[in-house]
Specification:
mainly beta; Neuraminidase; 380 residues; 2% helix; 1 helix
Length: 380
């Protein structure tokens, strides 16, 4: 498998900055590229550690980057804000989703989606808009916001119950469990609703939970959704009616995966998927610090047919279908002693940028943040 890309940014960690990641990129109205990510700024790098949204910018198509700076600080009541997703807003502004964690009086922890927008190239941001959805613990993948051709903003979320403590123990009844919701706005983010269709896991076990979903819009308007599981594959589903109904979710055999999210995005005339394929190390006993399968290596898959070779309607596995798929898969990292996860994708004028967590030679995959640049001719 061919290795592609070269490093253009690496945000190392330190004692009081133990984690940098969950990133996203967008082109600003002034032509620069904005790279936003979660910066954990206490000694705690756990998901509930103190964190805010920071950013770097590039004015040379991602070859070099400015020093990091804070763009959104958490409020006093929040434990952190994290996992940003930048999106173009139809009014010409730059929008940003993120998750806001807060400890509640009962000791439980909520994780709720929020939205802001900027009209001045990300220099200042509107007041925080807390999306109207029942209190609970929701997970949304970074870089997961989608602006459809019709001008609708979409943000898929997985619901994991009403409260969680810092050890992952639910302090109130979980209702529902492992259910996907999709937020939408038709008025440039002023108000938010939830699409009627919900995607529920058919499995009772924790490994069968659906988490951190993503959505891609095909040219014909069909929505393709995929989600993380602990069952060895990404699962996926389709909606032909804008999210009112979804097909029953099934494993997508092309995208083998540890319990880790995938990112798929349209990048000009291609669609790209970045994920961790497990066949390369399925017999390995190496694990992350919390004993889950190691998230390595990480690859960049290319579709030139509007991602139809990616979803469940794609090329058959009969007569070498998987072989054809693998011809368009490239290595981003081949050092399997490190781990890589939570990617984001962006198209430049001369290629593509991919950002992701890098374990920085530790057992913790959620550590440093890295960006690689791929020139277009590397995949042609």
């Amino acid at each position: 498998m061919k290795k592609i890309g070269h490093e253009v940014l690496f945000l190392k960690t330190s004692e009081n900055n133990p984690r940098n990641g969950e990133s996203t990129m967008i082109r600003l109205p002034d032509g620069r590229i904005l790279f936003a990510y979660t910066e954990y700024y206490s000694s705690c790098g756990e998901d509930h550690g103190m964190a805010r949204i920071c950013a770097c910018t590039s004015d040379d198509e991602g070859e070099t980057w400015s020093a990091p700076h804070i763009i959104i600080e958490k409020d006093e009541q929040a434990q952190n804000i994290m996992s940003p997703s930048l999106a173009a807003v139809p009014n010409g502004n730059v929008g940003i989703f993120y998750l806001r964690k807060q400890f509640m009086p009962d000791g439980g922890l909520t994780c709720m989606p929020c939205f802001r927008q900027s009209s001045d190239n990300g220099e200042t941001w509107s007041d925080e808009h807390r999306c109207a959805i029942p209190d609970g613990y929701y997970c949304g993948i970074n870089d997961g916001a989608l602006l459809t051709k019709a001008g609708r903003l979409l943000m898929p979320l997985s619901c994991h119950g009403e409260r969680y403590d810092v050890n992952g123990k639910c302090t109130l009844k979980i209702t529902p469990m492992s259910e996907i919701h999709v937020l939408y706005s038709d008025d440039c983010g002023a108000t938010w609703g939830v699409l009627p269709g919900k995607v529920k896991s058919p499995f009772a076990s924790t490994n069968g939970n659906f988490a951190e979903p993503g959505v891609y819009e095909h040219e014909d308007g069909t929505l393709w959704m995929w989600m993380r599981t602990g069952l060895g594959h990404q699962y996926d589903t389709l909606s032909a009616d804008g999210g009112t109904t979804w097909l029953s979710p099934e494993p997508n055999l092309r995208f083998t995966s540890p319990d880790c999210p995938m990112r798929v995005k349209r990048l000009g005339d291609i669609a790209a998927a970045v994920f961790n394929p497990i066949p390369f190390y399925c017999l390995s006993t190496n694990t992350e610090a919390w004993s889950s399968p190691k998230r390595t290596p990480i690859v960049f898959a290319v579709s030139r047919d509007d991602a139809r070779s990616f979803d469940r309607r794609g090329v058959s596995f009969v007569n070498g279908g998987m072989r054809e798929f693998m011809k368009n898969v490239y290595l981003l990292e081949d050092d399997c002693s490190n781990s890589y996860c939570y990617p984001s994708l962006f198209e430049t004028k001369d290629g593509y940028l991919v950002s992701y967590y890098h374990s920085e030679n530790t057992p913790y995959c959620l550590k440093a943040s890295k960006i690689v640049k791929i020139y277009r001719e590397e995949i042609e």
